[in-house]
Amino acid sequence: MKRHPILILAAVLSLAAAARADIYLVPAGTYAFPMDQPYSSRFGAGVSAGWAWNSRFALELGLRFWPVPVSGSIDGLSLGTLHVLPLELTFRGRWALGSNLLFYGEAGAGYAFHSFALDEGLQADWDALGFSINESVKKGPAAHLGVGLEYALSPKMAVDFGIRYHLLRTKGEWSITDDLSGLTQTGTLEKLNFDALTLSLGLKISLFGSDEDGVQPE
Q1: pTM value surpassing 0.85
Q2: pLDDT digits (tens, 9 = 90+) for 79-107
Q3: Can you give the residue ranges of every domain in the chain?
Q4: How confident is the model at residue 1, as a pLDDT?
Q5: Which helix (H) or strand (E) holds 40?
Q6: What is the architecture of the domain spanning 24-214?
Q7: Closest by alpha carbon to 166, among 68, 20, 23?
Q8: pLDDT of residue 214
Q9: Are 187 and 174 in contact (CB under 8 A)?
Q10: pLDDT in tens, 145-155
Q11: Do residues 92 and 104 lie in contact, with contact meaning Cβ atoms separated by under 8 Å?
């Protein structure tokens, strides 16, 4: 069994600890407000791991997920549920507003993984007519800008409230097959816009590191 990844991880953690950096984890609940009309708001979740190398700046790797009900449109997706899952690296700058409260601004980018499930009732209607239909959404680049507040509950724990604007643009594909003849038609869904404003409420947990640098910057 190869131990190289484990050794590398142990080395990184050891260096971070020696440098008095703060390594933390933030599980959070989210609520997404899609900007485009065919999509509806829905609760989601997320988790991020962060490295604050001093009291002012931090890097985070985060994964978020939210389902989006789709009402359907002529030039977009049909009735169903879209699942949005962006994985992004975020740079965060922090400024103290008091002994237990700080403000942060952030910017990040990465990749978003999408999937789409057609409404079961709509699928059944097409099946009854003798047609099989399929729609899919391609993965694509993602980016966001955000601001938020951290309120320290203890040297190792803080409440994190954030607001983000996500830029999510991609394409999709569709196909319809006549079950009797086997004839299939396909097409592309151009310029799908999944931009969304999200609110998040999380619990920041410092795994190890400097209490002063990690939670209460000067």
Answers
A1: no
A2: 999 999 999 999 999 999 988 999 999 99
A3: 24-214
A4: 47
A5: none
A6: Beta Barrel (2.40)
A7: 68
A8: 42
A9: yes
A10: 999 999 999 98
A11: yes
pLDDT of residue 6: 60
pLDDT-wise least confident of 145-149, 190-194, 211-215: 211-215
Contacts for 173 with CB less than 8 Å, ≥ 6 apart: 135, 136, 138, 186, 187, 188, 189
Distance CA 101, CA 153 (A): 10
Q: How far apart are CA 81 and CA 83, in angstroms?
A: 7
Query: Which one is predicted more confidently, 211 or 218?
Result: 211
The 10 Å CB-count burial string (b at 16+, else e) for 19-46 is eebbbbebebebebebeeebbeebebeb
Q: Are the beta carbons of 62 and 160 closer than 8 angstroms? A: no
Give the residue ranges of DSSP H helices in the chain. 4-18, 120-128, 211-214
Report how far residue 62's alpha carbon sits from residue 47's, in angstroms, rounded to the nearest whole number: 6
Element (H, E) at 210: none
Number of CB atoms found within 10 A of residue 6's CB: 10
**Which residues does residue 84 pair with via DSSP β-bridges, in sequence order?**
66, 114
Q: How far apart are CA 57 and CA 91, in angstroms?
A: 7
